[in-house]
Amino acid sequence: MPRTRPPYPLEFRRRMVELVRAGRSPEELAQKFEPSAAAIRNWVVQADRDAGQRADGVTTEEREELRRLRRENRVLREEREILRNCRARHRPSHLLREKLAGASMLVSAREAVAVSFMVPSRARSETWSGGGLRT
Questions:
Q1: pLDDT tens for residues 40-83?
Q2: How far apart are CA 130 and CA 33, in angstroms?
Q3: Which strand (E) or helix (H) includes residue 127?
Q4: Can you give the pLDDT at residue 115?
Q5: DSSP line for 3-26
Q6: Cα angle for residues 55, 58, 62 (degrees, 5° grid)
Q7: Which tops the pLDDT comparison, 1 or 9?
Q8: Could you tell me what percentage of the chain is helix, strand and coil, using 3-state DSSP and rounding each to the nearest 5?
Q9: Could you tell me if residue 73 is left (phi over 0), alpha (psi between -120 and 50 degrees) or otherwise beta?
Q10: pLDDT tens digits, residue range 27-46?
Q11: Residue 134, beta-bridge partner list
């Protein structure tokens, strides 16, 4: 499992950005301090976006808002699913009876159609031995 480390403190990142803007190279700072040169370059680019100097990506505020909205959407979807499941389990009895009555009528109609296709030539007084159906 790869080792991970906590993110660098905000003040440390700000100081690295200031040093790059003062003329030091990210590679030089990477050798002296722990973060990589690519990480320092990314911090500088993000700081430029936050300052309004670049428009090629989202600012830190926009990213935080997106994260918050996505989390809120996920919670709302979960709550909606819970309510949907709850309503399905706790239906009013008259709606449940109507639903069951409709389902039994549908099953009866299907059975009648199936039997009529299976034994079309038999008379109604005969017994169909396949399912014990007597008419």
A1: 999 999 999 999 999 999 999 999 999 999 999 999 999 999 98
A2: 85
A3: strand 127-128
A4: 47
A5: ---PPPPHHHHHHHHHHHHTT--H
A6: 130
A7: 9
A8: 65, 5, 30
A9: alpha
A10: 999 999 989 999 999 999 99
A11: 127
Q: Is this structure's pTM higher than 0.90?
A: no
**For residue 75, what are the contacts with CB-CB under 8 A and spacing of at least 6?**
none
Tell me, what amino acid is at 115? V
Q: 2's torsion region: left (phi>0), alpha (psi -120 to 50) or beta? A: beta
pLDDT of 131 higher than 60: no
Residues 6+ apart with CB under 8 A from 44: 17, 20, 21, 26
Q: Which residue has the tokens 């040093």?
A: 19
